[in-house]
Each structure stands twice: as C-alpha cells, then as structure tokens.
Amino acid sequence: MEPYQLTATEALAKFKDGTLTIEGYARSLLARIEKRDAAVQAWAYLDPEYVIRQAKQLDAVPLEERGPLHGVAVAVKDIIYTKDMPTQHNSPIYEGDEPKVDAAAIITLRHAGALLLGKTTTTEFASTTAGPKTRNPHDPGRTPGGSSSGSAAAVGDSQAPIGLGTQTGGSTIRPGSFNGVYAFKPTWNSISREGLKIYSLILDTIGFFARSVEDLQLLSDVFSLEDDAPATSDDFSVQGAKFALIKTVVWPQAGPGTIVALEAGAKLLRDQGAEVDEIELPPEFDNLPEWHRIVLHSDGRPTFLPEYRVAKDKLSPFLADHVENGHKITRAAQLEAFDGIAALRPKIDEIAGRYDAILTPSVVDEAPVGTESTGSPVFNSMWTALHTPVVNIPGFKGKNGLPVGLSLVAPRYHDRRLLVVSKAVGAIFEARR
Description:
The chain is of the alpha/beta class and about 425 residues long. It has 2 domains: about 5-220, Alpha-Beta Complex (Amidase signature (AS) enzymes); about 235-285 and about 335-430, Amidase signature (AS) enzymes (Alpha-Beta Complex). The chain contains 14 helices and 11 strands. It has an 11-stranded mixed beta sheet with strand order 1-3-2-4-6-5-10-11-9-7-8, with helices on both faces. Helix 9 (about 290-305) packs across helix 11. It is globular. About 55% of the residues are buried.
C-alpha cells in the first residue's frame, strides 16, 4: 500500500511507530494529485511547496507533543477561511482573495496537528448553481456531486484521507454517495461555523468525508462531539438491532440504483439478525421539501445582499434571484416554514429514538452524466432542515457500476452513537461490495 492510500487512522499509526515520515506521506499525496489532477480537478488552490514546509515542521515536533491529528492531510472546501491560502468561493467577486484569519474549524484542525493540503472546489458560494470543474473519479464524464465537489472527489480518489465540507441541502451526503466514501453531517451547529461563508444560519452544517468510520470518529474527537451517554462499539451489535426504513415523501423520484440499494441494504441487515421496519412519517413531514426551499431562498436574501450591491454583474442569476425575492416568498410563508420545521424536530427525535438508526436513501441514483448539475439534494434536504446527524454508508452500485450509498439517521446530538452503528453497518455493506 502506498502512503497516499492510507486512511487517517492508518497514517497516524505509521507516524507513531516511525515507519513513515510526514514529509514522505505528503510527497506521496502530492504525487497522487499530480498524476490524477487533470482527470479529477478537485483543487481550487494547492501549493506543493507550502505542503512540504508544513510537513517538515510537523516532523520536527516530538512525539509526546503531537496532537490527535498530527500529520494527517486534510482537504478544505473553498468557502472556509484559511489565512495562508486564498478563499474564493468559486466566485469572480473573490478571485485571489486571501483572508487574514482562519475559520474556527481550521484553528481546531491546526491545533490538532493537521496537514492542510489545499482548498477544494465548490459550486458558487456552495449553492445549487452549476457544478465546478471537478469530475467524478469513477467516471470523468459525470459529476462528483456538490456543493462540496472537490473535497468528496479528493477523498474518493485517494488524493486526501479527509475532506472538509458543508451542507445546506445535500452538499456532504450526496457527493459522499456519488464518490463511494463515508460522509458525515453532524447535528446542526455542533461544529462552529465562524469563518465560513454562510448561506443559511438555520441550515448550514460543517461535515466530513473519509474512507473509514474510524476516521470520522477521530474527527469527532478533535471537534469534541459528545452525546449525553458515551457510545462504544461494545454497546452495539447488528444482531438484535432495530432499524426504521423510511422512504420519505420524495420516494417517487428514486431511480433504479437507489431502489435496489435500499432493498439490498435492508435485506443485508435482516440477514444479520436485525429488525427492519418500514414506516411512514406523519403527514406533516410531507411539507419539509417545500419548507426547506422557502428557508433556503429566504435566508439567501440577506446573505448575498452585499455581493449583489457591490458586484451584481458577477453574481449568478440564481443567487441574485434570492436577493430580489424572485419567487415572491412572503414573510408569512417564511415564518410558517421556520416554525413548521422547528416543531417537527422534537417529533423526529422521538421517532428516531425508537430505533438504533433510520435507514433512508442518500441520493436519487448514481451520479448523473455531465457537470452542469451536481445532482438533486431531494433526499437530503429534509434531514438538514431537521438538524439530525446523518452518515452516508457506501457499498452499492447503480446500473452503470457507479457508487450508490445509503444514509443512516439518528436523533439530534446522538452523533457518536450513530457513528458506532455506522461502523457496524458499514462493515456489512463493505463485505458485500
């Protein structure tokens, strides 16, 4: 195994036992990026000399002074401020812009010893506008998803073990599925969004991409994600576990890849001795897709007003429409959506709390052809609005052989428990793959 292929947890073990230097690891990753960049194009900014300087500095730190992520490479979505790299939001308004501060998440990563590789591509301001230049590493004729396009593709192509993304609709879970990697959207606001270009305060959530659940657990340690009750693998077995299979109101949009994956996933769990109950959410949850749309467009009005006022000609019509309220969303409709979603959050906590996890689709189907669209977030947006933690579990394929994942969902602030369940379920799905 080449160093670039290592998960974060595997790389840390080699750093600690002296069989791999951080500089050697960094050079392996940079060589992988150089070899694959023309095909995948995951990076908005990458400076190899800066990466090697960091690696040499990290190698010089004594073992006893190293942090929990010391030397592990991280790809950072280019809407998150980094004081020594540009943050450009895939917008001509911010081309070459270099903030003088780190976002809170970057401060936390640096303190833990992370090696920051570079900035990864995103759609314009992480919106649902046309995709960036990035291609799906499994098929360059298809999208890697978005808006966290580059981070997901970099992890899926072994150009980085960990990617930092965000989700306002489906921008972490959907590209996780399209690229065949684990993706984790924690409970809303459990990770500081200071220094992130906000789209919606009510929806935006920082999330992670990785090639193992152990790496997601490692990141959860770094960001101090905690449940009220400690969660360990000793507490959970798929045999005897209970899962709720929920298709949601948007199930008619599911394609053949997702239909087959959901059936296969449920069967695999049942074959392992789990109880899988297909249930329907109460009718009031059917409002969530429309309420999410209203919140997104309403929150976008103040968010993009500065860019609209200063450089309207450089803002996409899609985002300008937010500011101009082109959809004519009334304040009454806005309040109904805000309050309606808020009222459903404790209800989903109660429903999800009856089970070890909810099993539900991650995507409509495998990644669509082309890069003009990053795919539909329709199966993700309701969970984002409800603030629940979600993990994409890879392991299935569509009719064209491209990855299709399934999501596990838990009540709010049951993140660590969800990761324990995801590790066990992921092992079952991976064994099938």
